Amino acid sequence: MAETKEKKGFKIGLYSVVSGVVIAVVLVLLTIFAFTTRYTAFSPEKVAQSFTDTIVQTGDGYNAYKVTLVSKNAKYGDFIIDAYMAPYVNAGDDVKQADFVGTGSQEEADAIDKVYNTMYDYYLELMNTYGYDNYDKIFDSYFAKLKEVRNQVYGDEFLDTEYMFGAFESNVDTYAKSLTGTEETLAEDGKTVLQEKSIGKYQEMYGEDYKLTSETVECKELSADEVTAYVAEYKNRITPVAESGEAKADSFGLEDTTEETKLLGIIPQTKEIKTKTAMVDAFKNLDCSEMITAVDLCTVEVKDQNGNVVASQQVYVVEIGNSWYVDNTNVDTSALYLAK
Fold first, then answer.
1. 10-residue block means of pLDDT along the chain (340 residues)?
2. Distance between CA atoms of residues 193 and 176, nearest Å
């Protein structure tokens, strides 16, 4: 009788199970890697380091607020629009812009440059007088001045959020380049200079090949009793700010209104425009006192390329849910503006 042998085929089922397990493990590892390397919000040390480094590298206190409690309950840009830009927005269809707007002409380019340059001088004045630890004063003052300057240069009353962000963020970028310096940039023709080479203040201070690095060297976890006391102190600091929205809205004469529109150009409908409510809520939502569950005191050191400590910053970071935020109501960042 002939010997029969079992044919050893490929076990698809077993392979599928093993493959599934391997893929699952890989995905878990990738997820952990992504969270630990890209999402600083889950680490108090990284939040403190990110906040400090953002400021020290280019003097950018503006974007440092993206990891603070200001950005906890609303997108940072939306908060600025509702709390500071709304009173100056005048961009309806019935508001006529200067004739040269949108033409791409030299006249328009000159107008933009004049506004941006004038506002940059004012931006420096605000930075030197207040600094971003008093962001409320900076935003309040800047956008009021921008409305005035736009009117003087353009001769119109138009102002929208796109233009306001454009001017402000251009000033932030110009300030950064004044610290870091710039490389020469040529157009596609290889001849036309789009940006000239410049030496920044940091290069003058630390050398043309300077390098600044920030590292969290200590993070102390507050005890339960200390957290309770800290939250009470935070509540006292933030309450006046959170309650200021109503008075601010009234000072600008903001009101919630309704607008009659037609859906598909046929069906009448009423659209609510809650400008006042948005401002009041923007400030009210700054109060996170009921959400804080833990507090750490982190110390971040900034070193130059030779290992010398050029700045040291203490930052209180608070935990809400699974994320950490810098408590911007309890920090003095003046030491991080090294060029001063």
1. 36 40 42 47 96 97 97 96 96 85 96 98 96 97 98 96 98 97 86 87 95 98 98 98 97 86 65 90 98 98 97 98 97 94
2. 20
